[in-house]
Design a protein that fits this description.
Chain lengths: 95, 200
């Protein structure tokens, strides 16, 4: 498959829709159009693959948890707050 | 247009808020811990100031405790929490010298003869999950995030890392859903260009 050095006007228009395509946010007709194009066009197919990898990397980063010492201090803050204010919230007034 | 389904995490928050508001002390404790974790992640990922993270966590803790008993719509808690954390971070944030004021244009980052998005994939043959597990990639991602202006970084954080819907992100950021989608696309394109550059 040959890779164009510069995207055509059509490629550029479709690239604007790539995120919506990857998010499943296009109508079925537009989705099919974008899908056909990225399967046929090496340049756009490459961009789509890279965007997918970027999104996957972001999702992995979102699973990060605070270090143990930070979690310990967070738990201590909760204990101090509960000791000061009480372990439960005041019940909501009836509507 | 289809909306992304409410995430499991979003449902979990709603359940915790409901239980905490009716006097469940364990649910309240878990919710207060979640609020602080969100504040820590936002602080370290978006604001980039680890020193300020504990202040943001304290703020999130106090405001969540005060707010949960009054909330009428538990589904609204999650956007409220992220808005609160964002405000706490912005309040405590000192403008970093050299922070980008704008996203680079698509012309600057889309493929071109000498552009950053040449078709030589940095890790051919690996699937996204394998790459995401790569510690080096995660380090490069953090560096790449710093090339985005603050609001775009916040949008990427909320949508990609925390899994908020476009509608929730729009609520947190105080902008339209279309604006979120446009900024998110440009931010993703810039991030992947930066990641491609960092892999060379």
């Amino acid at each position: 498959m040959t890779v164009p050095t510069r995207p055509s006007a059509r490629c550029r228009a479709l690239l604007q829709e790539l995120s919506r395509y990857l998010d499943g946010d296009l109508t079925p007709a537009r989705r099919r159009t974008v899908e056909r194009h990225i399967n046929a066009c090496a340049c756009c197919g490459d961009v789509a693959a890279r965007l997918r990898r970027t999104m996957a990397a972001c999702r992995a980063e979102g699973k990060r948890r605070p270090p143990r010492d930070v979690m310990s201090r967070a738990a201590a803050r909760i204990r101090a707050l509960v000791a000061r204010e009480g372990p439960t919230l005041a019940p909501r007034p009836a509507k | 247009m289809k909306q992304r389904m409410v995430t499991k995490t979003g449902d979990e928050y709603t359940d915790l808020v409901r239980s905490a508001a009716t006097g469940d002390a364990e649910a309240l404790g878990r919710l207060l811990m979640r609020a602080q974790e969100v504040a820590w992640r936002f602080s370290t990922s978006v604001c980039g100031h680890a020193d300020d993270a504990e202040d943001a966590m304290q703020e999130a803790l106090i405001k969540t405790y005060r707010y949960v008993g009054r909330i009428r719509e538990p589904e609204a808690f999650r956007p409220w929490l992220y808005r609160t954390v964002r405000n706490a971070c912005l309040m405590g944030r000192r403008k970093k010298a050299g922070e980008p004021a704008r996203l680079r244009s698509l012309d600057e980052v889309l493929p071109g003869p000498d552009g950053p998005m040449r078709p030589d994939a940095p890790h051919p043959g690996k699937n996204p999950e394998q790459l995401a597990d790569n510690a080096g990639l995660r380090r490069r991602l953090r560096t790449a995030l710093r090339t985005l202006p603050g609001p775009s970084r916040a949008i990427v954080f909320l949508r990609e890392m925390e899994g908020l819907s476009t509608r929730e992100v729009a609520k947190v950021m105080g902008i339209s859903e279309d604006n979120v989608k446009t900024r998110l696309h440009r931010a993703r394109v810039q991030l992947q260009a930066e990641l491609g550059r960092g892999a060379k």
